[in-house]
């Protein structure tokens, strides 16, 4: 008998650390803007809100806990959504900086990149003639010579200090097939237990390309390594690949992630005016596919989260 497909968890990554203010006037930069867009995304149907912080003075990425504190508690008070704090930060942050707020907040969920990698959007700099802020051009161009670091020891440390000590569970961000094998290593070592939430990411330079065939590769590899019933699969398509790959993934039984961190657009040549617009679009697609969207509490049950009230914010 065929297994009945579970409800679909919609995650929304509201701002990230990759895009810069010049790239879109709708990218939220201040605590007020981030809080507003996150709350609107939750109201539109996002069960999980993936959050980064920006310096409100010029929009550059920041790991400052004081900035996070200006919007994270507000989002918690206004929504029932699962709050997911990045441990990725940006390629320019140290591990200590990236963990500073998560260790204070002890959230239900954090993102965790499953390996060191080249991660870059530097070719985009060639398309921009005028920048809004002095920091943006060297920030984007400089990605060509930077590596995002997450060594095995780094990951082991994060699993200990956030997972074991804080009860936080993880959105395991897998940018390539090797990242699935890295995750399997930690499962084999007894450092990670299910249900796993695997965010499979396509279309980032330095990671796996956005070819549809790669989605099958990641899904079948995860099946072999973990067993279909031991993990929850999710799909993130970067840039113009967002909606097409998410639709394909949903048909295959995956969960989905949208948001202005992942794509600035709603359609070809059309900037999204908010992350909520992308949430509403993917929700319409899911409705047309006769797939039900999970509520935040249903997502908590599916992922084994500790609960909204067992956090420190």
Structural write-up:
Pfam families: BKACE. Its cofactor is Zn(2+). Keywords: Metal-binding, Transferase, Zinc. The chain has a single domain, classed as Alpha-Beta Barrel (TIM Barrel), CATH 3.20.20. 37% of the residues lie in helices and 17% in strands. Strands 1-2-5-6-9-10-11-12 form an eight-stranded parallel beta barrel, surrounded by eight helices. The protein has a two-stranded antiparallel ribbon with strand order 3-4. Strands 7-8 form a two-stranded antiparallel ribbon. Helix 9 links the parallel strand 11 and strand 12. The chain is globular. The relative contact order is 0.19.
Give me a quick take on this structure:
By secondary structure, the chain is of the alpha/beta class.
Features:
313 residues, alpha/beta, TIM Barrel, eight-stranded parallel beta barrel, two-stranded antiparallel sheet, 11 helices, globular, Aldolase_TIM, BKACE, transferase
Instruction: Give the N-to-C terminal Cα separation.
Output: 45 Å
- When the domains are counted, the total is 1
CATH topology, by name, is TIM Barrel
| Spatial strand order of the main sheet | 1-2-5-6-9-10-11-12
Task: Give the helix level as a range of percent.
Answer: 25-40%
Q: Secondary-structure element order, as H and E?
A: EHEEEHHEHEEHEHEHEHEHEEEHH
CATH architecture: Alpha-Beta Barrel
CATH superfamily: Aldolase class I
Biggest sheet, in brief?
A: 8 strands, parallel, barrel
Rg, Cα atoms, Å: 18 Å
Number of strands: 14
Outline type: globular
Range of strand content = 15-25%
What's the CATH C level?
A: Alpha Beta
Q: Residue ranges: pLDDT <50 for 5 or more in a row?
A: none
InterPro entries: Aldolase_TIM, BKACE
Keywords: Metal-binding, Transferase, Zinc
Cofactor: Zn(2+)
């Amino acid at each position: 008998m065929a297994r009945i497909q579970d409800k679909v968890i919609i995650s929304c990554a509201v701002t990230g650390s990759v895009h810069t203010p010049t790239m879109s006037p709708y990218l939220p930069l201040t605590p007020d803007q981030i809080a507003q867009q996150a709350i609107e995304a939750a109201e539109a149907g996002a069960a999980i809100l993936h959050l980064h912080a920006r310096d409100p003075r010029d929009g550059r990425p920041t790991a400052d806990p004081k900035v996070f504190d200006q919007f994270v508690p507000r989002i918690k008070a206004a929504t029932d959504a699962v709050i997911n704090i990045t441990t990725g930060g940006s390629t320019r942050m140290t591990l200590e900086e990236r963990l500073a707020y998560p260790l204070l907040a002890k959230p239900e969920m954090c993102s965790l990149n499953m390996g060191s990698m080249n991660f870059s959007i530097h070719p985009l700099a060639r398309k921009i003639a005028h920048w809004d802020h002095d920091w943006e051009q060297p920030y984007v161009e400089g990605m060509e010579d930077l590596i995002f670091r997450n060594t095995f020891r780094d990951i082991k440390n994060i699993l200990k200090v956030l997972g074991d000590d804080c009860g936080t569970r993880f959105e395991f961000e897998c940018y390539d097939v090797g990242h699935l094998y890295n995750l399997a290593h930690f499962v084999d070592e007894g450092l990670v237990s299910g249900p796993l939430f695997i965010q499979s990411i396509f279309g980032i330079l330095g990671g796996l390309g956005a070819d549809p065939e790669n989605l099958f590769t990641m899904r079948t590899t995860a099946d072999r390594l973990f067993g279909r019933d031991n993990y929850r699969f999710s799909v993130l398509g970067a840039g113009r690949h967002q909606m097409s790959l998410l639709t394909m993934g949903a048909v295959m039984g995956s969960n989905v992630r949208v948001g202005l961190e992942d794509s600035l657009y709603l359609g070809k040549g059309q900037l999204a005016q908010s992350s909520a617009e992308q949430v509403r679009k993917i929700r319409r697609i899911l409705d047309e596919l006769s797939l039900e969207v999970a509520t935040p509490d249903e997502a908590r049950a599916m992922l084994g989260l500790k609960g909204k009230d067992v956090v420190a914010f």
